[in-house]
């Protein structure tokens, strides 16, 4: 388990991480999200003992990284694509890492196979594409068969096959009961990969929530109903508005209802004898929810045009913050 306790990091007068607390549970993939400069990499670096906290603690199984007895067997990490010795082969690079941690050479061949680099293992790492270098970095993280995995932007530079491969790998690792913390800016991919999310902005916690709760509770979920019976549809809209649902009518034949269950919309149509030609639910995407939650926290945010719903957003933030 990873435990971040009131973690703070200052670089001069710049506050990179500010009183941040959360835990990362075993057996799940936890997505670590936040705009550029939010403090994700700094937090991961403190977990790996590469930066020291100004105050607070970043612990793996209750200990700072530097106090772990066998760190490579406890934590495997991929930070930004490492600068590798360009003439050293992928295999030799991993062998060097293995030797210095008392890991047997056969484990190097196992991880090379796991990341599909066996055939190019003798090639100099300097000739690797970005995707191959990422796979090599992941191989290094897996070397000690660690309980905890931390990947910072692992799908950077990967083609769609590679992206899917990382998704399946991290899901399998969590399925084996490992703790997986994963950062990425690719929201659609994160939505498919993560069970839980920790979202930070300007070094502070914005949300710590399961993916399912975040999407389910979002105001952006809608039910669309289509019918040729325009008058009846008007009556349905009135009934739903009276029940405090937000109802739009993009055309005479269509209603878009926010915050209602499909059963409620279907029942209202039935009551007003409106023949339903289509009833469609649409869930908010993680990307939309994320954009709402982090609006204002981005370091170089472009002005975002938004329908005014600040009240709903503040409520949502409060809800998410508490869960
Ligand atoms: N070594 C350093 N010296 C000074 N400032 C730093 C240093 N490392 C990070 N920072 C600053 O700390 C803040 C957090 O940076 P960090 O790299 O942790 O963010 P991030 O969430 O990983 O961003 P990105 O998504 O762009 O990788 C930024 O404002 C950054 O400029």
TrEMBL record:
Keywords: ATP-binding, Nucleotide-binding, Transport
Nucleotide-binding found in the keyword field: yes
Superkingdom of the source species: Bacteria
Xref: CDD domains: ABC_BcrA_bacitracin_resist
InterPro entries the UniProt entry points to: AAA+_ATPase, ABC_transporter-like_ATP-bd, ABC_transporter-like_CS, P-loop_NTPase
Transmembrane annotation, as ranges: none
Keyword Mitochondrion: no
Record-linked SUPFAM superfamilies: P-loop containing nucleoside triphosphate hydrolases
Domain ABC transporter: 2-227
Single Gene Ontology MF annotation: ATP hydrolysis activity
Family that this chain belongs to: Belongs to the ABC transporter superfamily.
UniProt name for this protein: ABC-2 type transport system ATP-binding protein
Naturally occurring in which organism (per UniProt): Amycolatopsis jiangsuensis
Organism lineage: Bacteria, Bacillati, Actinomycetota, Actinomycetes, Pseudonocardiales
